[in-house]
Amino acid sequence: MSFAECAARSFTAVSIQKNAPESSGVYGLSNGREWIFIGEASNIRARLIEHLNEVDTVLARRSPTGFTFELCSPTERITRQDSLVRQFEPFCNRRIGYIRSQFIEGFAEFGPGRSTV
Questions:
Q1: 41-to-53, 97, 101, 102 alpha-carbon distances in Å
Q2: Given this model, what pLDDT does residue 14 score?
């Protein structure tokens, strides 16, 4: 199932202020070629502004040009985000999943209280 709010909006400060709600939900960032990131936030507008201001991150280097969002309750956000990530396989979420799995495996190998760094 795609985003309930399918209208793509420009990923600019003006567009975010005008179109993104200060509400709980999930959001997606894309460019003309791919889905870049799907996230969840208690305040979609604030989180999108944070992403817009990122410099020299993997997300910023993918040059997002658009966003979309879907309102949902705080208790539904993670489940909905997971569902959308499985459906669209955004570039940054795949990278984050890999990093998380590597960290968890490393943590299990070294045990609690020990650093892998």
A1: 16, 18, 22, 25
A2: 98
Q: What is the CATH number of the domain that holds 51?
A: 3.40.1440.10
Return the number of other C-beta atoms located less than 10 Å from residue 63's C-beta. 11
Residue 74 domain-assigned (yes or no):
yes
Q: Tell me the β-bridge partners of 26.
A: 40, 70
Per-residue pLDDT of the chain (117 residues; tens, 9 = 90+): 578 766 789 999 999 999 999 999 999 999 989 999 999 999 999 999 999 999 999 999 999 999 999 999 999 999 999 999 989 999 999 876 644 444 444 444 444 443 333
Domain count, the chain: 1
Signed CA dihedral, 12, 17, 21, 22: sign only:
positive
For residue 73, what are the domain limits?
Answer: 5-110
